[in-house]
Amino acid sequence: MLKNKGFLLAVLIGLIFVLVACGEDASSEQWDEIQEAGEIVVGTSGTLYPASFYPEGSEELTGYDVEIIREIANRLDLDISFEAMGVDTMLSSLKNGRVDLIINDMEVTDERKEQFSFSDPYKYSYTTMIVREEDHSGIETLEDLEGKKAGGGATTVFSQIAEHYGAEVVTYGNATNDTYLRDVDNGRTDTVINDYYLQSLALKAFTEFDIVLHPDIKFHPTEQAIVMPKGSETLTTKINETLAEMREDGTLTELSEQFFGADASQKPEEDIEEIEGLDL
Fold this sequence. Notes:
Blueprint: H1 2-37, E1 39-44, E2 47-48, E3 52-53, H2 64-75, E4 79-84, H3 87-95, E5 101-102, H4 110-113, E6 116-118, E7 123-132, E8 149-152, H5 157-164, E9 168-171, H6 177-186, E10 191-195, H7 196-205, E11 211-213, E12 219-224, E13 227-229, H8 233-248, H9 251-260
């Protein structure tokens, strides 16, 4: 009986080593394929100012996220190809192999970590609301979101937050910022819940609307990172090593100040309210 147990234990240990080795082989194979192609394919929206956007009159994609991944590719001696797509299709495109990674101000959540690999964070932020200036859209607390209309992507964390508090989410495709902001201004929606840095810059870019960042509501601290297929250990390591170099030599700070006017690569010092009871 003991001999049988010993035999089964040996088989089990052997299987574990085989599975680990297979995982390592698959991860290395993915990196080898990228190196052989000499190119990394990146999914991003191209409509998210100032993270990923086309400046007016230009066909050259830029933004904080875009320039970060462009610099990473350069340091890894790789060409880069961008695939513009809506937020709601990015993760499925990553799963089916259309892109090698995603960078689009994508928040790291426990739910997403079960399905994907993430780099170390390249941006730290928190969440705010854009509301109408005259009455804050009738919202003074998060609980006041109940019954309101919030513009957003169907699968974003921000839409999950809106639904958590009882708001109706008005969804869009790969829309530009002016579409979201105009709808708050004209009353089609009541708010846009999104990242503090992105919303602050969007308001400066579209001054024709009578809307503001809510002055009293700051919540849900966030970390943004590059998203890769689950099990991409080798690629993740290469990305993280390069991000560490860019943090050390000041490149992340320089790019952040270029696009945000502040260093979003560092954690904010403000005390930001956590959301209780929301499983992300």
